[in-house]
Amino acid sequence: MFIFAGLVLLFSAFFVPYAYARLSGWPKRFWPLQLLSLIFVVGYLALVASRLFIEPNYFWAGVYDFLGLFFIFQVYFLFWLLVCWLIFIIVKKKARARANRVPLNSKKRKKNRAMAKYRHWVLEKAKSPTSWSKVLARLGLVLCLALVVYGAVRARFFEVTRYEIALAGLQEPVTVVHAPDLHLGNSRGKAYLESIIMAIKAEKPDLIFYNGDLVDSKLALRKDIFDQFKTIAAEQYFTTGNHEYYVGVDLVVEWVKQAGLKVLRSERVISHGIQFIGLEYMNADRQASDAHQVNQLAMDEELPKIATSPNFPLVVVHHSPVGVKYVQEAGALAMLTGHTHGGQLFPGTLMIQSRFPMYKGRYQSGPTTVLVSQGAGTFGPMMRLGSQNEIQVIKFVPAPVSS
């Protein structure tokens, strides 16, 4: 996927300035824009490949954020211009064909000269932008810029989504806040976490699960950020995601523990009449492919190792919505997960379904209810288009007893 995205971006660095100049008539010399675009593209790919954006450096963090937005703009504008270019080629081809059909009559020299001038005029017009191509090119520029700005603004806010799940064997209602994928670091810091924590406190939950990808840069590993977790009175739990491994899983876990959160790494805890298994980030099984694989663990092997009790309903918490059949086999009545971001950005919001059939919201797999969060934050370009940051408030209630 990285190689494909890189090739698309490299192509766009040359094609976008060229096509825009040809369609709009400006600028006359487009190679400086190609050079600048190429620098941005290569710079972004180098930052991603080197993982330099993970380091605690504000300069590179800012460059990474800017180039991420440029990347999305470039892709959107590329596809817009490809469509416009196709139309442009078809129209020009028809114009040339029409010019070549202009009849010439050698006996009528005056009329012949007029027809020849008309043909020449049509052919010259076929080489230059038309009024409609100028409008489409400039409209696309404004539209793509507007989409990037709109998506960047949407990414700064979050919604509170609510669910109710009945659990057989539960005695009293329990309120759980599920907040995976905060991605504290380059784009999100103290202020954003503070707004999340304020929303959590307003819900007065019994438990909170930060289900992986809490941080994606060492910039987030600061005392003033992590001390905010200490202001919450409810029980707080943390499970690992793939990004903790990129930053340094042991380092992140140590910061999380110092903040007072209980870390569950393929462990069980019983609280408020529910037994929760918090899994380390892992594959579903040995046969499954994972573009984010960070260890050799597998759910079909690890879940049976964790002792459970038939006296309490079981809920499994795992960062990625994979291995649902193994969760079901373990006897879990619910699974809390995230990782997908709901696709985060169009057209990713459509493509994500091919990788994760359960990619956002609520699903039912036999007796197991699966909740997939779109994530409380974003990764890569700080944008949301077709999805929304969210924290989930889940009310577990006793299942009605059948008579």
Task: Provide a descriptive summary of the structure in words.
This protein has 403 residues and is α/β, with parallel strands linked by helices. The protein folds into two domains: 2-152, no CATH class; 158-398, Purple Acid Phosphatase, chain A, domain 2 (4-Layer Sandwich), CATH 3.60.21.10. It is built from twelve helices and twelve strands. The chain has helices at 2-24, 31-50, 58-100, 109-126, 131-154, 190-203, 223-226, 242-247, 249-258, 299-302, 324-329, 348-355, and strands at residues 158-167, 174-178, 207-211, 235-239, 262-263, 267-271, 274-278, 314-317, 334-337, 361-365, 368-372, 389-398. The strands form two sheets. The chain has a six-stranded mixed sheet with strand order 1-12-2-3-4-5, covered by helices on one side. Helix 1 packs across helix 3. The two termini are 54 Å apart. The mean pLDDT is 91.
Short description, anyone?
The chain is an alpha/beta fold and 403 residues long.
Defining key terms:
alpha/beta, 403 residues, 16% strand, six-stranded mixed beta sheet, single chain, 2 domains, Purple Acid Phosphatase, chain A, domain 2
Q: Count the E strands.
A: 12
Please tell me how large the radius of gyration is. 28 Å
Low-confidence stretches: none
The CATH class of the largest domain:
Alpha Beta
CATH architecture grouping of the largest domain: 4-Layer Sandwich
Give the DSSP E fraction (strand runs of 2 or more residues).
15-25%
| Number of helical stretches of at least 4 residues | 12
